Amino acid sequence: MRTEEDLLTVRHAVRAATVEVGFGLVDQTRVVTAASELARNAYVHGGGGTVTLEYPRDPRGRRGLRLIVKDEGPGIADLDVALTDGFTTGSGLGHGLGGARRLMDEFSVRTGPGEGTVVVATRWTVR
Length: 127
Prior knowledge:
The chain is of the alpha+beta class. Helix content is 41%, strand content 23%. The chain is built from four helices and four strands; from the N terminus they run ααββααββ. It has a four-stranded antiparallel β-sheet, with helices on one face.
């Protein structure tokens, strides 16, 4: 993701992936919203990055969609604060990382000053 247009491409790709996995409309919207927040964060704060989609299955047979969003930016200095509702570094509403975490079933962040950031977020279908 290097341009605003790339963010739209991510949204479209994730929407198509949610349909392929078999999510209903509400879960499609949740995953696309989370992906949009994470991609925008990587673009704005990380100077761009990549989004990778994976299609895991769990032992119970559920299908999932995993988003892996990476950037090589400055990292997140205080992750606990960044995940707090209402936290914002700009003009946003402060729903970015914390909101994305709530929309997904699994969520992890690996980051550090000067290390960039990797967010892995997974949503599972209901069985």
